[in-house]
Amino acid sequence: MMEFVLFLGLLFALGGLAVASNPSPYYGVVGLVVAAIAGGGWLVSLGVSFVSLMLVMVYLGGMLVVFVYSVSLAADPYPETWTDWGVVGYGFGMGLVVMVGLVVSGVFGLLSDVGTVNGAGLLSVRVDFSGAAVLYSEGAGFLLIGGWGLLLTLFVVLE
After folding, report:
1. Using an 8 Å Cβ cutoff, are 90 and 83 in contact?
2. Is the model's pLDDT at 4 over the cut of 80?
3. pLDDT, tens digit, for every residue of 39-90?
4. For residues 45-58, b (16+ Cβ closer than 10 Å) or e, as one string?
5. Please, which pLDDT band fits residue 116 given cuts at 50, 70 and 90?
6. How many CB atoms neighbour CB 87 within 10 A?
7. What whole-number distance in Å separates Cα of residue 95 and Cα of residue 92?
8. Geometric angle at alpha carbon 146, from 142 and 152, rounded to 5°
9. CA dihedral of residues 23, 104, 38, 49 (deg, nearest 10)
10. Where are its TM segments located (predicted)?
11. Computed over its alpha carbons, how large is the radius of gyration of the chain?
12. Cys bridge to 24: 5, 40, 79, 121, which one at CB 3.0-4.6 A?
């Protein structure tokens, strides 16, 4: 299970790298989808399956709308791809910085199997029945702030 969580972490970092290293929104959206799904899987392994579901639904739903608007405004006939030298060099530099940071912080020495919350074998979903009730009772303000932020982002992109 620990290897799977590390794989999801690697996918999350690579998805963020794909979004950050590519100036074209056509290819950046692929990195966004990979990062959101890997982040959701990572949260499931920690035992918060409802938060993971909310991440995938709200984040991907809201941000893909923003990417559709930016793609329609960017109308570039020849977008830069991941194989262009500038994008490859930028991605290699960012990956090098991440690897040096991992080596310096000593993360590679912590590769022991500690398990997950309520996880046994391939079962990694925690019994999480109170997630929706807590989100709507205690987190209503955060939902309103998040909705306001998405609306503001939509207007900024349209301008």
Report:
1. no
2. yes
3. 888 888 887 788 888 878 887 777 777 777 777 777 667 766 667 777 778 7
4. bbbbbbbbbbbbee
5. very low
6. 18
7. 5
8. 145
9. -140
10. 30-48, 55-75, 87-111, 132-158
11. 18
12. 79
Give the pLDDT confidence score for residue 108 in this predicted structure: 60
Our CA angle for 147, 153, 157, nearest 5°, is: 150
What is the rounded CA–CA span in Å between residue 36 and residue 68? 17
Q: Lowest-confidence range among 10-19, 40-49, 54-63, 130-139?
A: 130-139
Count CA within 13 A, CB hemisphere, residue 124. Answer: 16
- 77: tokens are 């006939």
CA distance 28 to 19: 5
User: What is the 3-class SS of 26-56, one letter each residue?
Assistant: HHHHHHHHHHHHHHHHHHHHHCCHHHHHHHH
Location of structure tokens 């996880």? 119
